[in-house]
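Friendly challenge for the regulars: who can give me the structure tokens for this chain first? No prize, just bragging rights.
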Amino acid sequence: MSKKYVLVVDDDPDLVETVGMLLENKGFEVGKAYDGIEGEEAIKKRRPDVVILDVMMPRKNGYQLCKELKDNKWTKDIPVILLTAVGEAVPTTTYTHYEGMTIEAEDFIPKPVDANTLVQAVERLL
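First reply, four minutes later:
Bragging rights claimed.
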């Protein structure tokens, strides 16, 4: 049986590497992208089984990419886990709680990310 493929999209390279290693150690194959545009291109090249997606990123944020995935018949069934520090950032950014409530992501995990919570979310969605 082939390994499940998880795409991690975040503009923090340390987080991408840490989450990637954690998931690889649990037996997953991991793809990596460092902003929403790279994530979109990676998804076009290879359809992931799960996407772990940061909200606050340059070029295309996680809310935008998640909405595009859920609006596309080819990608709408891919489970999306949003990683977010938006709750703390709402007063100082253009991100809103409303955006997060209207996105059809399967799970939201606050930053800083608890590794066990993230792995359990990925396993539950698969």
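The radius of gyration is 13 Å. The mean pLDDT is 87. Your move, everyone else.
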